[in-house]
Design goal:
The chain has about 675 residues and is an alpha/beta fold. About 50% of the residues lie in helices and about 10% in strands. The chain is built from 29 helices and 16 strands.
């Protein structure tokens, strides 16, 4: 800790305002600076990125290196060229990201199997309709069968997808017909989820695959094993066990913490733990235990994608996104931060030594040195969840000074693809027809999916918010998942009328008519598969082409930082989407002394576009991201023969116009309503 403090003093970093646009984060960063406590922001200021490694120009895959390519014409000791080294590094990141999300899906499938066989505590099948819907896709019989019997068969099918060695993983059947045909022609349909990840690692072992284009082709196959495999399985099973999300009211930002209650923050990605902690926190025994400790009760909140899981299903508030995990502890109000897997900073334990917060790890896959480990087991889920909460309650007496920022905002999360289908047409006419029609008419210019992480290398939340603001003005409907959704929730974009005044006239008509916010929260980062499903349903509805690559849509990850983001980007490109990632390109050299790749970056843009209709590009400037997004949407509109976007063509919706007229004095109101008729 002393070394960290001296490092902070030794080099001037950003001010809190420069580090984040979020006032709650700014307040906590100012407190950290005042106390000389390091955070991810100050460590990012101290740590100069390796320009060689960040450009993918360093190879450490064998003991002859590491080999750093710093001049034109250089190769590794084995002769590996810059293109080969970059693609090997890229596919390994895609493999790791795919493994992380797919392992999540595997755990969910095993939980479904255990629930179906009565081997768990506290879980049940909450969404039988979703179970029937998914089972029907795979021809699993549902007539005259119990939910448990159906769930057992579905679990077996899903578990088999991980170890399958030949054939095609079954969720790919849900893609558009033209897309499936293309994948088959290209030989990229995943044979088994684990097989593709293992093969990615094998191909990149020293002395194996050395053709950059061939390596990238398998990167596509590996990512599809995630997007149309493991992640899709994870989303399906989460909905079946915990309920398919539908809109409800929630809150986001550090202001959701309470100074008179036991604050427990759940952080990570797997909903099996967080959903049970929610259930345990509502148990009368636990509430009384908290009151006996001097608190008014238990206040549960979430960080990162666990926040999204319990927010969209239970309405549990989100304390923040990825970069706020340390800031929550800095409030001094958190009795326990309970973590499972992914995006957990090792610095949490060291930081917590300055406060009373207990860091509790729960996954058999993840331990932090110095943290309390209470291993989670679905067979005793509720009992373990109660024990975790009791640990937090017992820690309440150790709380010191509290500094909770007075900043939070309300939002409406829970826009699953099932609910979007329903909201556009109701119970009996649910359809994507109204959305397609709105795009075809030009009321909605196109669709943008903003996803991904927050990254301390850029101003926290700034890119997410700036891009969202401008796209909404340009009548682009925005859908979001993960930390990106929380970033905009804190600014009020995910709450109906709170953001409607910042929306273009055509999109505003649609939002007011349907009664939706201008930004749709679709879930956690694993739920990007919901976006694939929406795009598929839009294609199947007709009028916007016959494959995903024809839809006027763009995916953006403006502040990405994790390997999962690269896997997501790649499977979206392979599905036909144009994807823009913020920040430097990990497969393109920079500077006078570092060679520019002549092949890889170009191929991931123009080469992939020629084959799959989607492309991957890395852009530093949010203004340029916006420009490329709008240009692409307009290009796709033109290719479909749709009218050119014209913001002046649409005005206020019927509902808004009626409200405006009703506010007029009587004579003016009558003239507005009947003037033309009277004149006639």
């Amino acid at each position: 800790m002393a070394d960290e403090k001296s490092a902070i003093k030794g080099k001037k970093g950003r001010t809190p305002e420069e580090a984040s646009i979020d006032p709650a984060a700014q307040q906590m960063l100012a407190l950290a600076d005042e106390r000389g406590i390091g955070t991810a922001f100050s460590r990012a200021d101290q740590m100069s990125p390796c320009t060689i490694g960040s450009a993918g120009l360093c190879c450490d895959l064998c003991g002859m290196g590491p080999c750093r390519i710093t001049k034109d014409g250089m190769t590794g000791v084995c002769g590996a060229t810059v293109d080969t080294i970059q693609t090997r590094n890229f596919i390994r990141a895609v493999a790791a990201g795919s493994a992380a999300h797919s392992d999540h899906g595997r755990d969910m499938a095993f939980t479904l199997k255990a629930v179906a066989n009565g081997e768990t505590e506290g879980y049940e099948i909450r969404d039988v309709a979703k179970l029937h819907s998914v089972a029907s896709i795979y021809d699993i019989p549902i007539e005259d069968r119990t939910p448990e019997e159906i769930a057992n068969d579905l679990a077996d099918l899903y578990i088999a997808q991980f170890g399958q060695q030949r054939g095609a993983i079954v969720p790919t059947e849900r893609a558009p017909e033209k897309r499936k045909k293309l994948w088959k022609e290209q030989g990229v349909i995943p044979r088994g989820i684990d097989r593709e990840v293992v093969e990615a690692l094998h191909r990149t072992h020293m002395g194996d695959d050395q053709d950059p284009i061939h390596i990238l082709q398998h990167a596509v196959r590996t990512s599809l094993a995630d997007g149309w495999g493991g992640s899709m399985i994870g989303t399906d099973v989460s909905d079946i066990l915990f309920g398919t999300p539908a809109p409800l009211l929630g809150e986001a930002n550090l202001g959701v913490l309470k100074d008179d209650m036991v604050n427990v923050v759940v952080h990570g990605h797997e909903p099996t733990l967080s959903q049970m902690v929610v259930a345990a926190s509502q148990d009368p025994e636990i509430i009384e235990y908290a009151k006996a400790a001097g608190a008014k009760g238990i206040n549960l909140s979430g960080i990162c994608c666990t926040a999204n899981e319990i927010l969209m299903r239970q309405g549990i508030p989100a304390a923040g996104n990825f970069l706020q995990q340390e800031l929550a502890i800095l409030t001094g109000a958190v009795e326990a931060m309970v973590v499972d897997v992914q995006c957990i900073m090792q610095a949490l334990v060291t930081l917590s030594e300055n406060f009373h917060t207990k860091i509790i790890t729960t996954s058999p896959k993840v331990k932090l040195k110095g943290a309390t480990h209470i291993e989670f087991d679905e067979k005793h889920a509720l009992t373990i969840a109660k024990n975790i909460l009791k640990e937090a309650i017992d820690n309440y007496a150790n709380r010191g000074e509290v500094n909770i920022p007075d900043y939070k905002n309300t939002l409406v999360p829970g826009f699953s693809h099932e609910y979007i289908n329903y909201m556009l047409g109701g119970s009996y006419r649910s359809s994507f027809r109204p959305l397609n029609d709105a795009i075809m008419s030009g009321r909605i210019r196109g669709v943008a999916a903003l996803v991904g992480c927050t990254n301390p290398r850029v101003q926290h939340d700034a890119y997410h918010v700036a891009i969202t603001e401008e796209l909404l003005k340009q009548d682009v409907l925005v859908v979001q998942t993960g930390c990106s959704a929380i970033a905009n929730a804190k600014l009020g974009f995910l709450l109906g009328d709170a953001g409607i005044d910042r929306v273009g006239p055509g999109l505003r008509e649609v939002c007011e008519t349907i009664g939706i916010p201008p930004v749709l929260h679709m879930g956690s980062c694993v739920d990007n598969t919901r976006i694939l499903t929406v795009l598929t349903q839009m294609v199947e509805e007709g009028g916007l082409g016959d494959d995903i690559d024809e839809v006027p849509a763009v995916g953006l990850a403006p502040e990405w930082m994790s390997e999962k983001a690269l896997a997501i980007a790649t499977y979206c490109v392979a599905s036909g989407a144009y994807v823009i990632m913020g920040g430097p390109n990990p497969v393109a050299g920079r500077g006078d002394k570092i060679p520019e790749s002549t092949q890889v970056a170009e191929y991931m843009s123009s080469g992939w576009e020629e084959i799959y209709g989607g492309k991957l590009e890395f852009v530093d400037d949010p203004s340029e991201m916006i420009k490329r997004t709008l240009d692409h949407i307009d290009k796709k509109r033109a290719a479909l023969g749709l009218p050119e976007y014209d913001a002046t063509k649409f005005g206020k919706s019927g509902d808004a116009r009626v409200q405006e007229i009703e506010a007029l004095p009587l004579e003016e109101r009558q003239a507005a309503l009947y003037g033309k008729r009277a004149a006639g």
